[in-house]
Amino acid sequence: MVVCRLSRRVEAEHPPGVAGRGCRYLFGCRAFQRCDFVANIRNISGFVSLAAIGNRRQVGTVGFEHQVVELHFAYGIGQPALFEGHHTADAEQEVAALLQLPVGVGVFGEGVENTPQAQPFFAGGLRFRFDSAAHIFPGRPRDSHKGTFGSVLAVAGSAFYRGAALLAAEGALRTGAGIVTLASVEPVVSAAAARLPECCLCPCRAGAEGGISPENVPLLRRQKATVLLLGPGLGGTAQSAARAAETQALVQQLLPGFAGSAVLDADGLNAAAQLLAEEAAFPHPAGELIVTPHPGEMARLTGLSAAQINADREGTALRYAQAWNAVVVLKGARTVVAAPDGRVRVNPTGNPGLSRGGSGDVLAGMPAALLACRLPAYEAAACAVYLHGAAADRAAAVHGEYGMLPHDILPELGRMFAEHQR
To answer: Which of 287, 294, 276, 267 is nearest to 350 (CA)?
Structure first.
């Protein structure tokens, strides 16, 4: 549902040079004024313009009544949203009804040219604030226990990529999962025992190139978990054809039979791409699915080029979210999160310091944890992407974009939760 609430209605004088009498002014709330985007709802009748008033204030004028309306906007499902200013057809009708106007309200960002454009749907440059997420991240109940926050089974890692599994597992731990179990081969399990004493371990028999053998599937199915994280560091064609085939078997056998929700990442996505190339259906658990491709992985999944994908990131993510019935997290600068029901978000956080191996592994564990904490997949993905980038921005402020490392994100993530009493 779209929440769009009138904060107050007051009489005010007209700002000099903005509009004459008989006009309605639409003031943005404090957070609304900080938005760095332009989103115009379809203009069926009336005209919307923009002007600044005082310090960082902006106002739209509509040639109807003589009054000022201050609005608070929040968009989401059943609660205030993560991103401010995302407009759908529902929001269009809600705004029109609240203002008793024909459809045609414009919403503007600071410093943006005030020419209205007929645009029924806009998904770019949306602004998220952590304090808006207080409704998404409720305080942990005093009588809660580890089962309250779910359990994540991370099937990850290989002899070639030991760190990927550890970063993903710690990402899940730092984002609030009640229990995280890492299923991997012995060298990875040994490293996890030394680095992550909070992580439960499921030692697996090694297969080709030191990866997890498909012989472990019965063992993995016996693990009690509400969320499956599958893919980080499993290995694939970069090691050998045999390794790629075993990873494909893991994806094909584990994902469709899993009773909960899942996150599919990295080599798990490459295995899914091979299944699609063989005209098999996209593997899907019984619950919700989040996929986290970068443009190269998205190219293998879709058959498009990376250039084609980057030319229309929002459209591509949305199209395949609907085709695969999955939440698509299309990574990169301004990561896109798209849901099968048509919702799309563009994340504003993050920096080039994330452009190194391991950053995506940290991210993969985060939506898995939020799914375990019972957030819906779309909200879990959007929250994880925002928090990952925001923590990376803080890490860059300490270490620099050249000097920061993916594991520097993890303590900053904890500090962010602490600062907001979460």
So the answer is: 294
Q: Is the CA virtual torsion 301, 121, 386, 83 positive or negative?
A: negative
Share of the chain above pLDDT 70, in %: 67
Judge whether residue 102 has pLDDT over 70: no
369, two tokens: 């944890």
**Which of 391, 314, 270, 403 lies closest to 86, judged by CA?**
314
Q: How far is CA 40 from the centre of its chain?
A: 24
Which pLDDT score is estimated for 34?
32
Q: Which residue has the higher pLDDT, 415 or 57?
A: 415
CA quadruple 310, 316, 320, 321: dihedral sign: positive
Comparing CA positions, the residue from 91, 99, 239, 233 lying closest to residue 166 is 233
Name the 3-class secondary structure at 153. Answer: strand
Q: How far apart are CA 216 and CA 240, in angstroms?
A: 20
- The mean per-residue pLDDT over the stretch 329-350 comes to 94
Reply yes or no on whether the pLDDT at 16 is more than 80: no
Single-letter residue type at 350: G
Q: How far apart are CA 9 and CA 13, in angstroms?
A: 13
